Amino acid sequence: MLDGPFTISEALAAGLTREQLRSKRWNAPLRGVYQPRETPPTLAAQCQALARLLPPEAAFTGITAARLRSWWLPAGATSAPLHITVPPDRLITRPGVRSTRRVLDESDVIDVGGLRVTSGLRTLRDLAADWSLIDLVMMADAALRFGHCTSNEWAVAAALSGGRGVCTLRRATTLTDARSESPMETVLRLLIVIPGLPAPLPQAILRDECGGWLAQVDLLAPDGLSVLEYDGASHETGARHDSDVRRWRMLRRHGFEVFPYTKRDLFFGWRQILTDYQTALGLPDDPRAAQAWLREWERSSFRRRRS
């Protein structure tokens, strides 16, 4: 019984004394809750400890629900308070815990690792009230990709009205794509589609003149020839970088133009990315595209964390 988190009353019922609870065998992650000292300080362990203090109707919601599902996260999400929803007549006050009081429909709650957690769609609806459009689409892409929210469920969100964040939520439903394979790939795609430029195709398969398979690329522009690739930290190693360069040369021999970008390009060189894309498609360098992106970028967690 005492292998996991437990309350003082449970400890006393199991025969422990208050003096024994003060021994080095136990620690108290929260006031009123104890656990074996060797318990790893994971998010799941923190939530399991907090769950011992919650009423049966409570659930983990918002950014905590997203973290428990390993969705792609906005900047600063891992340091956010644990977010719970409790019945209107209850109030849980603990450092590092954010409580929302409302009645949750049981259809909006599922079990995740033994914890009561809001469903994918309910979580995204809650996140829309707290996070920017870019942040929300990134998390929604992960939810769709991981199967935590179906395309039919997500389509329902487009018809919702009323409530904080509903405009952000409805707009997000028009920008998500379950084919995205990484958070920064999503941001790269959003850099193009939020300003209204022709949307690229995610995870496109490229073939040679005889129909043979060449490569699968992050984003393929509508011209069918311009390839946008996001290169994360794993691409910076010598062997991986050498492989990337050989791949780019091979694609160029087959008539494709490759535009590789890094996180620094996305965060600080996004104007050049827009220019590259418009030039590749033969479009004028429209300053309104940059303005449209900048409005959303300034609201995003990534921009705020670097201000």
Strand arrangement in the largest pleated sheet: 9-10-11-12
Main sheet characteristics: 4 strands, mixed
Beta content: 15-25%
How many domains make up the 3D coordinates? 2
Q: Calculate the terminal CA-CA distance, rounded to whole Å.
A: 48 Å
pLDDT averaged residue by residue: 93
By helix and strand content, what is the structural category? Answer: alpha+beta
General form: elongated
Roughly how much helix do the residues carry, as a percent range? Answer: 40-55%
Gyration radius (Cα, Å) is 24 Å
Order of helices and strands: EHHEEHEHEEEEHHHHHEEEHEHHHH
Q: How many H/I helices?
A: 14
Give the uncertain stretches in residue-range form: none
DSSP, total strands? 12
Write a structural description:
The protein is α+β, with helices and mostly antiparallel strands and 307 residues long. The protein folds into 2 domains: 40-173, no CATH class; 183-305, Endonuclease, Chain A, CATH 3.40.960. Helices cover 40% and strands 18% of the residues. It is built from 14 helices and 12 strands. It has helices at residues 8-13, 18-21, 43-51, 62-68, 120-127, 133-145, 151-157, 166-173, 183-193, 238-253, 263-268, 270-280, 287-299, 301-305; strands at residues 6-7, 26-30, 33-36, 59-60, 82-86, 97-101, 109-112, 115-118, 201-207, 213-220, 226-230, 257-261. The strands form 4 sheets. A 4-stranded mixed sheet has the order 9-10-11-12, with helices on both faces. It has a 3-stranded antiparallel sheet with strand order 1-3-2. A hairpin with a 2-residue loop joins β7 and β8 (115-118). It is elongated and about 75 Å long. The protein starts with 5 loop residues before the first strand and ends with a helix. 31% of the residues are buried. The mean pLDDT is 93.
